[in-house]
Fold this sequence. Notes:
Helices cover 52% and strands 7% of the residues. The protein is α/β, with parallel strands linked by helices. It has 3 domains: 15-108; 176-229 and 248-310, Rossmann fold (3-Layer(aba) Sandwich); 328-429, Rossmann fold, CATH 3.40.50. The protein has a 4-stranded parallel sheet, sandwiched between helices. A 3-stranded parallel sheet has the order 6-5-7. Helix 7 packs parallel to helix 11 (200-206), helix 10 (176-182) crosses helix 12 and helix 14 crosses helix 16. The radius of gyration is 22 Å and the shape is globular. Keywords: 4Fe-4S, Iron, Iron-sulfur, Metal-binding, Repeat. Pfam families: CCG (PF02754), Fer4_10 (PF13237). One of its GO terms (molecular function) is oxidoreductase activity. InterPro entries: 4Fe4S_Fe-S-bd, 4Fe4S_Fe_S_CS, Cys_rich_dom. Residues 24-83 form the 4Fe-4S ferredoxin-type domain.
Amino acid sequence: MTTTYDPKHPKYLDEADVREELTRVYDLCHGCRLCFKFCTSFPTLFEFVDRHEDQDAGRLTPAQQDQVVDECFQCKLCYINCPYIPELHEWALDFPRLMLRADAMRHENGLKGTRSNLTTEVMGRTDLLGKVATATAPVTNKIVSAPSGSLVRKAVEKVTGVSSVRLLPPYAKQRFSTWFARRPKLRINRRQGRVAVFPTCLVEYQKPEIGHDLVKVYERNGIECSLAEGAGCCGAPFLHSGDLPQFDKIAQKNVKALADTVRKGMDIVVPQPTCGYVLKKDYVDYVGTDDARLVAEHTYDAAEYLMKVHKGEGTSLDVEFPGDVPETISYHVPCHLKAQNIGLKSRDLMKLTGAKIKLVQQCSGIDGMWGLRAENTDISVPIAKKLGDEIRRAGGDVVAGDCNLANTAIAEQTGEDPQHPLQIVARAYGIPPEPTR
């Protein structure tokens, strides 16, 4: 049995070794039970172990072990709350990273089904899918926006593995990078920072208006913006599905491009939390080079960077908000922002406008692509419903959230139209939305 989270360790993908480590950790988790409320992995695990009089986690079958793995959607909340993590305890327990190791082992050893691998191939190639979908947006969006459970959506599910009952974000007719290249250039007189925007697939292809408002808010505050040239999808769909070779290919390419950007004197700004987490944490773990660490040290969430400027020496934000400021905002805190351990920077940013912020900390159960896979529908939808209930209970005038997929789940469950915090701030400044293209 080897306790390791290093993907380059010779035992990392060894099935027998991984299963022994799963037994060790499952036994510890069963004895603790602190994380019973975060996802169905833990109740499932506890129920399996409790079937045996001696409550021995070693009696679980490989199929039962794998079911626990499959129900983990990498929210990272158990790690945040665990008292036995490597930095704090000799047991060195990191449940999310062990689940990633188990998924990688199963992928490497052919233990994942053909159907699952096909869905990963379809959903993982976000740049290819995004380029095609934006070029054919009118047709693509008719398919994407077909009613939940309709024949069209069922056909898509059969071919791609994407759930026929989940609301899907539509594709934009104009990509964010196209808008950025064509926009009038703004001369910044008092520069307070230089950043390269890593737009993420969601902003590049599906929600470019987040990028529009990010750039305008940044430039209003003297922050010069460019694009992270040569970088593409962060690779999270492949990482979270266990396809390490594909993830490594993507990660190596992005690390090189982003490190070159940092050496030109720019920080990296990411408007989506899952992608920010991958750049800050996973590239360090899986690429492990000095360049990966350089990228991590210079990567910021979009609101995090603005608050850094606001509280910096000799720098500050414009805190005059002549535009539309809601009285109350229901703000959904994404799990992958919590996992970055940076505090609630989006809340702090929106509070500068004078709005009252009501926090909603229920997980959306999305984790990038996990919640959109057909095989996870029965687990993911009830989690989204809990989030919808919390949003309704908060009752804010508007709803905000950093994660666009979580926002889509909120829209699915409540009919609300959540906004990214940078969009809230843009409207508060009086910056109008870009005309729809």
